[in-house]
Amino acid sequence: MSVLTRPPGGASYPTSPTARSTWRGSRIIVLLGLVIVLVAVAGVLFGPEPGPSRPLDPDDTTLAGSKALAEVLRSRGVTVDRVDSVEAAAAKATTGNRLLLITDTLYFDEYDLTRIQSDRLIVGEVPGLDVLAPGVHSEPGSVRTRSREPECALPAARAAGSAYLGGATFSGPSGATGCYPAGDGYALVSFPQAGGVTTVVGDGGFMTNQRLAEDGNAALALNLIGTGRPVTWLVRPATPPPIAELPGERGKSMEDLMPESIRWTVYMSLIALIVTAFWRGRRLGPVVTEKLPVVVRAAETVEGRGRLYRARRARQRAAESLREGTIDRLTPRLGLGSGAGPNEVVAALAARTGQDAHQVGAALYGPPPADDAGLVGLAGYLDFIERQVSEL
């Protein structure tokens, strides 16, 4: 409540804060807050949209990316080179002994990758695994990804302890070491071969930004990758190459895989298509509109159909037409669906009109009339029922 004071002149004024004085004192703060809110909303609405997630990409900061692992490796003095082509990976291999980390081979030729002499770490059941890791076989099905114990003598796995692994499982060749058993195989298989040591893991979840800090995931990833040698990290290209340039069997393109006679087959097919279109198309003339010589009224059509029914003594067909038309018109008025059965229609109609249910059922679904008089009586009764429903 405002307290009024009276100055010597006789006028009174409030000494406590009023709404007007409060607004004058705080309007700058309110306006500044509104400006901040508007700028934030505009930034959300008109700002650039975040790019799609790139799983196991060393430059991706989303939960599925591996930016955190790449930064940890660089902080330990390991050079991490991200490449998205076989040519770039081969060029890096010429600089010295490196580790080739393969996360995806969908757009790459596995035979070209085998020419790169280095240790390999293959993540997941990638296409061409039988070429990249000879002797490694995938077990049928997949296992749940969870924390697992190594249960093997591989130093990198034993030092890391339990890790978040699963997905595909493998069995290795003779002399291979299997770690993290799951199902009928192992989630990690490592073995030596001519070009170096090849290691295959069933799932790369332990290398992602989301899981790196859990369990022994970081230790396992650093033990497998951070061996002190530079790392060539092969990822899927951001822009897929044209389909015609994708590698086929043993590196052959789509055109190389086609038989030599396919070009002449295509030419002959086009010629046959053109000849067929000319042969069939020239038999059709232009569309011609023709006025009807006489206009037949609807009533005359109904009378003509009735005379045909009478001439052929088709009382059953005439009764079916009358009943079907009545049921189609009454069903929506009774609040029933188009698939309502006879019992539903009869019960609803009897309740709506007060007619005997047996009489209504005989009229709608009973046997056909025995003579013309019965057909006329049926038509009159159906019309009576329909008028009753319409008037209610």
TrEMBL record:
Protein name in the entry: DUF4350 domain-containing protein
Chain segments carrying region Disordered: 1-20
Organism: Nonomuraea angiospora
Transmembrane keyword on record: yes
Keywords from the named record: Membrane, Transmembrane, Transmembrane helix
Record bears the keyword Membrane: yes
Source superkingdom: Bacteria
Residues annotated as domain DUF4350: 59-225
